[in-house]
Amino acid sequence: MGNASLFRLAAASAWLAIPALLLAGLFLALFFGGRGEPYGPLNDIFTALSLLLLILPAIAVYLSSQAAAGSWLTVVTWLAVAGMVIGAAGQVLLVIGVINLQTSFVTGSIGILPVLAWAISIAVLSLGLRQLSASLGWLMVAVLLLALFLTLASSLHWKLATWLFAGGLITALVAWLGSLGRDLIRLA
């Protein structure tokens, strides 16, 4: 498979992550909104799918930017891919009953840290090295800030702020995934 085919597949994967992410968010809202089961496991499944759908875009970004970025991008990308797999596997293992909720927090934490590093690298590639569109970089900055604000609001039990930041985060992630797909299809 040539790079053009990979970029087309990666763009499609980024776009397919949008409905998966929206469904994960919907099921999470239903779960925490008092609806309970079966929405928790549905959130876990669609969260795992969202993570797996990011693998091809991560590889495509790496291939398009490795010459300009250098070896740091290699390390960040492959750790992020491993994190995506670990995070997704933890969610699936939780749903099928192999691990408990506490263990899924461990797999989720191990998985998300390199993904966050990759997210920061997207901002650097876009805004610093100009390898991707500036809009992609600014959207990633918005995603990271909204995730930080959501974490803060949630930890302080500010219910309204938590819901507002969660909605903002989902909106920013959807816009980011759409822009990522657009950038990748332009590389095909």
Structure report:
- 89% of the residues lie in helices and 0% in strands.
- By secondary structure, it is an all-alpha fold.
- α1 runs antiparallel to α7 and α3 crosses α7.
- The longest helix is centred in the N-terminal third of the chain and has 33 residues, at 3-35.
- It is globular.
Break the fold down into its secondary structure elements and pairings:
Layout: H1 3-35, H2 39-53, H3 55-69, H4 71-95, H5 101-128, H6 134-155, H7 159-187
Helix pairs in contact: 1-2, 1-3, 1-7, 2-4, 3-4, 3-7, 4-5, 5-6, 6-7
Low-pLDDT ranges: none
Sheet of most strands = none
The helicity comes to over 70%
Number of helices: 7
Query: For the residues shown, what is the average pLDDT?
Result: 95
Strand and helix order = HHHHHHH
Structural class: mainly alpha
Overall strand count: 0
Distance between the amino and carboxyl termini: 12 Å
Strand content: under 5%
What is Rg?
16 Å
- Overall geometry comes to globular
Structural features:
single chain, 188 residues
Summarize the structure.
The chain has 188 residues and is an all-alpha fold. Helices cover 89% and strands 0% of the residues. The relative contact order is 0.14.
